[in-house]
Amino acid sequence: MTNLGYHIRLHLTDNRVIAPTAPERRILSGVVLDQGRRDDLYVFDCPDNHLHVAARCNRSAAGLLSHRIGSSLKQRLQLPVGFVQYPPKPIEDNHQLYNTVRYVLRQREHHGLAPDPRSEGSNLSDLLGLRIIGRYTIQNMQRWLPRIQRRDLLDLSGLSTLVGLPATLPADAPITQEILRTAMQAAGCLTDLSGSSNELIQLRSAAIAAMDAVGQQLSAPKLAALLRVNKRTVLRLRTTQPDPDLVHAVGLQLSLSFHLRGQSASTR
Is the pLDDT of residue 167 over 90? Predict the structure, then answer.
């Protein structure tokens, strides 16, 4: 019996695209990462109509993980049909372990799909620091696949746009509510930024710190307008100590937004 884990594959019975929108891809990633944590998941990707997952667990746990992911996705995404679940495929040796990661992370390229610049349907977003919900997969990758470095992940994903992103933005960069909210939603793997949960408080605190970090040191009233909160909340959040990984993720998402806007403008 293998001790290197299993490769899990799922698709819907009618082969429709599982999560066609960015918010749906965030829901999908949240489900997969939550369900895979106990089974040492280290890589997954959902390019369009199928999902690949690899986890360092035994055969029984792999089957249960596949079932939990499929059941939760059907409920959370309100899918009208269920999933076809193939028998988990054992990973027999270290060579196959590395090949499985490369295969999973090249799914978009393999199927002729354009790269997703934020990798929201894959844990590449977490491995590259764009999101923190799946940062446990960084430790799993470092533990079992130490030869895969950041440059390899960028190459496998096609996300060369992340190379050389500016650590700061121009002082006059037009930060809008839409740009900031998109960065926050992507970094926090959320579809809704309303409410006062601890998760959202942490994300708002990180967003304020990230704005400062990328050279956008805005006044409290301007930040309040961007975040859709009151000035007192901004002043209070500025006194808190946010998660540094989340600050980095929001800052990277902001830089990526402007990089992508620049690319789009240059191709018109």
Answer: no
Residue with tokens 């040191």: 217
Do residues 255 and 159 lie in contact, with contact meaning Cβ atoms separated by under 8 Å? Answer: no
DSSP string, the chain: --SS-EEEEEEETT---S--SHHHHHHHHHHHHHHHGGGTEEEEE--SSEEEEEES--HHHHHHHHHHHHHHHHHHTT-SS-EEEPPPEE--SHHHHHHHHHHHHTHHHHTTPPP-TT-TTBTHHHHTTS-STTTHHHHHHHHH-TT--HHHHHHHHT-GGGTT--SS--TT----HHHHHHHHHHHHT-S---S--HHHHHHHHHHHHHHHHTT----HHHHHHHHTS-HHHHHHHTTS---HHHHHHHHHHHHHHHHHHHHHHHT-
Alpha-carbon separation of residue 12 from 92, 107, 158 (angstroms):
27, 17, 26
Residue 36 above 70 pLDDT? Answer: yes
Q: Are strands 6-12 and 41-45 parallel, antiparallel or unpaired?
A: unpaired
Q: How far apart are CA 98 and CA 125, in angstroms?
A: 19
Distance between CA atoms of residues 176 and 71, nearest Å: 38
Check whether 1 has a pLDDT greater than 50.
Answer: no
pTM, rounded to two decimals: 0.92
Give yes or no for a contact between 225 and 237, defined as CB atoms under 8 angstroms apart.
Answer: no
- The whole-number average pLDDT for the span 200-214 is 93
Q: What are phi and psi of 77, to 5 degrees?
A: -95, 0
From CA 37, how far away is CA 137, in angstroms rounded? 8
